Amino acid sequence: MFSRLSLVARHFSAPSASLARATRRPSFLARMALADERSRCTIHTAACLIIGDEVLGGKTVDTNSAYLAKWCFALGISLKRIEVIEDDESEIMEAVRRMSDRYDFVVTSGGIGPTHDDITYQSIAKAFNLPLKLHRDAFEKMKKLSRPHPSQPSFSYDTDSPARKARLRMVELPTDESRDLSKQFIFPHEELWVPVSVVNGNVHILPGVPKLFETLLDGLKPHVLPRLADPEGKGTTRILISTPMAESEVASYLAELAAMVEPKGVKVGSYPRWGKSRNTVTLVGRDQAFLESLVAEVEGNVRGKRVTTEGEDDEAGDERDKDA
Question: Structural domain tally of the chain?
Answer without folding.
Answer: 2
